[in-house]
Amino acid sequence: MLRLLLDEHLSPRIAKQFLVKCPGGNMASVLEWQDGRLSGVPDDLLLTEAHQHKLTLVTYDQATIVPLLKSWAEQGISHSGVIFIDDQTIRQNDFGGIIRALAQLWETGRRENWLSRVVYLTRPAE
Questions:
Q1: What pTM did the predictor assign?
Q2: Which residue from 54, 75, 96, 98 has the highest number of Cβ atoms inside 10 Å of its Cβ?
Q3: How many independent structural domains does the chain possess?
Q4: pLDDT > 70? residue 126
Q5: In what order do the strands lie in the sheet with 27-29?
Q6: What letter does residue 20 receive in the DSSP assignment?
Q7: How many Cβ atoms from other residues are within 10 Å of residue 97's Cβ?
């Protein structure tokens, strides 16, 4: 089952509203998950910890995560998936758009294998 972890640049409100919209969904914010102990840690540690808990990371951070994933792929290191959001597709302050898009992705992909999968979130259908 798809289990989502929002990075520290996404508001915990998104997780709370997602869970209202998608009962049975699984989403947490790194700011609150495990008492926020992973907030501010380097990306490799965050992705490693997320993988240990089978959590797919949701992030806008393409600048540092993309090169890390490329390096991991070259080394054969797995992760539990990354969902990138691009500011040109859904603005970072568009909580409703982010929630709708993640809910749509969760509905269609929640039973799929997310091992080392990378997806760019698309604008939700209105």
A1: 0.95
A2: 98
A3: 1
A4: no
A5: 27-29, 4-6, 56-59, 82-84, 118-120
A6: H
A7: 18
d(CA 14, CA 96): 8
- 125 occurs within a structural domain: no
* Residue 38 maps to a domain: yes
Helices (H) and strands (E) in the chain, counts: 4, 5
C-beta neighbour count of 99 within 10 angstroms? 23
Q: 3-class SS at 37?
A: coil
Q: How far apart are the first and last CA of the chain?
A: 25
Contact (Cβ atoms closer than 8 angstroms) between residue 49 and residue 26: no
**Nearest Cα to 1, choosing from 110, 124, 97?**
110
Separation of alpha carbons 68 and 2, rounded Å: 22
- Per-residue pLDDT band at 125 (split at 50, 70, 90): confident
